[in-house]
Amino acid sequence: MSAAFDLGGKRLLIFVVAYNAERTIASVLDRIPAALRVPGVEVLVIDDSSPDATFRAGLRYTDEHPALPVRVLRTPENQGYGGNQKLGYGYAIAQGFDYVALLHGDGQYAPERLPELLGPLVAGEADAVFGSRMMVRGAALRGRMPLYKYVGNRILSGFQNLVLGTAFTEFHSGYRVYSVAALKRVPFERNTGDFHFDTEIILQFLRAKLRIAEVPIPTYYGDEICHVDGLRYAWDVAVATLRFRIHGLNLLYDRKYDLGPDAVRYPVKLGYTSSHSLALEAVAPGSRVLDLGCGPGLIARELAARGCRVTAVDRGVQQGTRDGVEFVDWDLEKGMPPIDVSGFDEILLLDVVEHLREPERFLEQLRSAARSRRPAVVFTTGNIGFAVTRFALLLGQFNYGTRGILDRTHTRLFTFASARRLFVEAGYRVLETRGVPAPFPEALGGGGLGRVLVALNEMALLVLRGLFSYQIFMRVRALPTLHELLGETERVSAAAAEAHRSAVPEPGADR
């Protein structure tokens, strides 16, 4: 008799998804190793409304083997492979288990290998462990995996590794063990109920930066009936993987991968043409700068390092001077902060105006506050006319996300024409307008490919700026208000009249 597996005082749920498994379910349960028939281990079988007698077979097994704590449930209607998993993981969470192991009721995955999969999890080396049929060269084919499935598995896994930057030997094994604590961190209930649930939960683990380990498992293909449409499955997996990648690029939003805000939502984009590099170039060293909507103050600190005197304003910032920057806590929705704006040379509005409920009113207040000094204003915002956004609309997609052109906190969306109109109607003269390429280096990890794509994007901007600009860059200056213009007109007129009178001799004067 093998020694009991040491779970370290933790509880394990062995969860068996079952569909049309009447002939195999008893064998699968029999093969659960003796090392795991210990206190703290329970078995859950969920029959997904099988048309055969899977449920009755499971109940019969529990009657005949009372020593093994097995609970058998049957869904009121078919939930699909992914939907069945959601129920099992929800059960594990609700019942306070520490680990959950996924088995298939058709016997395709060997229950005898459960201790090997549990090892890295119990040792604290992983948050999930996947059994891989591809880790041992040729083992899958020797286990009678059909050649077309083998080739398809390798191609699809290779494609996913390429897109995701991972190195898994297999994405498509259904033999897995999870930490329940890790499952609590991902919204798996938002995933599909179909077979590519397994892919989506991997993607969620990657997004949450959870650790995934692989261990080799044997391959077994018997006479079981496959319920997976291979071509549809491959398509669904490819689309899910690409959507995840595009979500990560902030070009499309998918709520199932929204696992909380990043530590720094908008890092400084330097070293290539970007809204940040253009803004820094527009400000002369030593200038007095007002950074409105500064966020964490990253650009403000860059300017301070270049000898500028910077005042940075945003809601929730800690007041005081740090790193050469004076920080002011102020909600711009209230209007202009109580600062003498006329004392600045440059004002930054970097990806700010689109977040305001009434940007027109705010810009008019800024114009009035600037008074006669009228500093230049550097403005950036996302371009809703960007090619990728237009293509998404063509496909019926318009999703707000956590970052990018369609940030969920945006209240306004702009094209070049509407951004220009916003400033002109608020009383500003547009001094400069430029298109900004997409931040490929940020999305692709800062390698050479990202910079090549930026260069190509810049070339495209010369042809169709409105279509290929990821962001809009503008430099504007406030025009005098009507009151200021009237006062200036009166002063200039009075001075001119005085000069005229001084130059014209009085009547009767000597000629």
Summarize the topology.
Elements lengths: L11 E7 L6 H6 L10 E7 L6 H11 L5 E5 L5 H15 L4 E6 L9 H9 L5 E5 L6 H4 L4 H18 L11 E4 H4 L13 H11 L4 E5 L13 H19 L26 H8 L5 E5 L5 H8 L3 E6 L5 E3 L2 E5 L16 E5 L8 H12 L5 E7 L4 H8 L21 H10 L2 E9 L3 H5 L3 H16 L1 H4 L2 E8 L3 H22 L8
Parallel strand pairs: 1-2, 1-4, 2-3, 5-7, 8-9, 8-12, 9-11, 12-13
Antiparallel strand pairs: 4-6, 5-6, 10-11, 13-15, 14-15
Helix pairs in contact: 6-9
Question: Can you give a write-up of this model?
Answer:
The protein is α/β, with parallel strands linked by helices. It has two domains: 12-257, Spore Coat Polysaccharide Biosynthesis Protein SpsA, Chain A; 275-484, Vaccinia Virus protein VP39 (Rossmann fold). Helix content is 37%, strand content 17%. It is built from 18 helices and 15 strands. It has helices at residues 25-30, 54-64, 80-94, 114-122, 139-142, 147-164, 180-183, 197-207, 230-248, 275-282, 298-305, 359-370, 387-394, 416-425, 440-444, 448-463, 465-468, 482-503, and strands spanning 12-18, 41-47, 70-74, 99-104, 128-132, 176-179, 212-216, 288-292, 309-314, 320-322, 325-329, 346-350, 376-382, 428-436, 471-478. It is elongated. The mean pLDDT is 89.
